[in-house]
Amino acid sequence: MTTVLIRLPPEHYDLLAGALEITSAEYTIVKNNLVPRQQSSAEPPMVEILCDPDEAKLLLEAARRVYPEAAPFIEDAMSVEPEA
What we know:
single chain, two-stranded antiparallel ribbon
C-alpha cells in the first residue's frame, strides 16, 4: 500500500488544523494520523502526517481552500516517489 508522509512546520500544522471544521474528514486525518517521533536538535521541528494518497488529496484540496500556505508542503509530499 502506498503512503504519503506530509511534513509541516508546527505553525502551519496548527493553523491548518485550526482552519478545518472539526467534524470534517480532513480534520480527522490531521489529528489521528500523526507520526510520533523524536527529532534531533539539529533539524527544524516538523509535524508528520502519514496518510494514503486519497487522504493526501483531500488534505490538499482543503488546504487550498482554508489555509493555502500549507498546500506546497502537501504537494511536495505527494510528489515523492515511493521506495521499491
